[in-house]
Amino acid sequence: MTATALIAIPARRGKAAPVAKGQRVRVINTHGQQVVDTWAFNRADLTEFMSMEHSRTALGRIMPLLGQSMVTNRRRPILTLLEDTSGGIHDTLLAACDRYRYELLGCREYHDNCTDNLAAALGELGLAAPETPSPWNLFMNIPVAADGAVSFRPPLSQPGDYLVLRAEMDCVIAFSACPQDIVPINGVACVPTEAHFQVAGT
After folding, report:
1. For 112-168, what is each residue's pLDDT tens digit?
2. How far apart, in Å, are the Cα atoms of 15 and each of 1, 60, 61, 190?
3. Which of 17, 22, 152, 192 could potentially form a cystine with 202 if both were Cys, beta carbons 3.0 to 4.6 Å apart?
């Protein structure tokens, strides 16, 4: 299986890449505590994209098991989870952070955010998404209590933990090393770090 070199997702920034059907993407939590917001779009039609609400219906659960596929807003498989060394905790409930989230958290000046990171990452490829879908928040630990309440906890992953995803259609995959530094979703130190990914052949 031929693989590309590791591609950095810089701390607080985004990165995107084309992926062919059947190729595999390894997403690495390099330092162990970094949430990686993840999107995937049909390369031929960006109005079709990985959808968390459609995926939860298809999965019958809020997080996929090995061998299960995330689906698009047209209910077609787009990414299948093949391997996961991190413990399987990956949020599908929360929207990407944006300027409004940080304003509500008290920021008076611009704060890096995953919504803008997605736009910038796709822009590097000459692409623009028609909207910002809710991301698959890899490594993000958002427990749901019996009463329905959610909490924002540090990741359970360790340095070097990774997932392997198989593309089920030609797609563009995009990532953001989430810049959240106010609540401890990127570890109790609240310090965003870089992550990495790698694309491999079938």
Report:
1. 999 999 999 999 999 999 999 999 999 999 999 999 999 999 999 999 999 999 999
2. 23, 30, 28, 21
3. 22
User: Does residue 1 lie in a domain region?
Assistant: no
> Does residue 192 sit within a domain?
yes
Query: What's the pTM?
Result: 0.96
Identify whether the C-beta of residue 201 lies closer than 8 Å to the C-beta of residue 2: yes
State how many domains the chain has: 1
Q: Is residue 170 part of a domain?
A: yes
What residue spans of the chain are helical by DSSP H?
A: 52-59, 99-104, 114-124
Give domain status of residue 194, yes or no: yes
- Inter-CA distances, 32 with 39, 48, 191, Å: 20, 31, 12
CA of residue 169 relative to chain centroid, distance: 18
Look at residue 141 in the predicted model and tell me its pLDDT.
97
